[in-house]
Amino acid sequence: MTHIIDTNNLKKLYYTIGEVADMFNVKPSHIRYWEKEFTAIQPRKNNKGNRLFTPKDIEIFNKIYTLVKVQGFTLEGAKNELKKRNNRNHTEEFTVDSKHSINEVVSKLEEIKSKLISLKK
User: Fold this and answer.
1) Alpha-carbon distance 5 to 20, whole Å?
2) Residue 105 CB partners (closer than 8 Å, separation 6+)
3) How many domains would you assign to the chain?
């Protein structure tokens, strides 16, 4: 049985390592190991040093869990796949949609720049 978590239903800001381990039906040591292996997971630590994971961290665990436990990737393969996906997502963020040409965007930015310079004066 797979343990994919719907992060939209998470209500708390932070989850303990035990709670995260229970979500994925693994031991806390498994969560600590993945945290060390995948730099994208950066839990906060409270005054006692206990790890506190955000829903974003749990979303990353979802991706790792799916790649490793469901799709059968090795840890190295999962790291590479996550890097590829992140690079693709960053590239997509900066693409210009079909309604606007790059020239239109540049023109608009130059217009804004000139307005800001005139405001500064």
Assistant:
1) 10
2) 96
3) 1
- Distance, in Å, from the CA atom of 20 to the CA atom of 25, rounded to the nearest integer, reads 8
Domain annotation covers residue 114:
yes
Q: In this predicted model, what pLDDT tens digit does every residue of 2-42 receive, in sequence order? A: 567 777 788 899 999 999 999 999 999 999 999 999 988 99
DSSP string, 22-70: HHHT--HHHHHHHHHH-TT---EE-TT--EEE-HHHHHHHHHHHIIIII
Residue type, 98: S
**CA 40/CA 49 separation, integer angstroms:** 19
Helix (H, G, I), strand (E, B) or coil at 15: strand
Q: What is the pTM of this model?
A: 0.66
